[in-house]
Amino acid sequence: MESENYHDIDGNPVTLEKLCRTEPGWACSRIRHMRKQLEAQLAPAATAEQCTWKLEDEDLELWDTGCGEAWVFSDGGPQDSGVKYCPACGKPVAITAPQQGGE
Ligand SMILES: [Zn+2]
Question: pLDDT confidence of 63, banded at 50, 70, 90?
Answer without folding.
Answer: very high
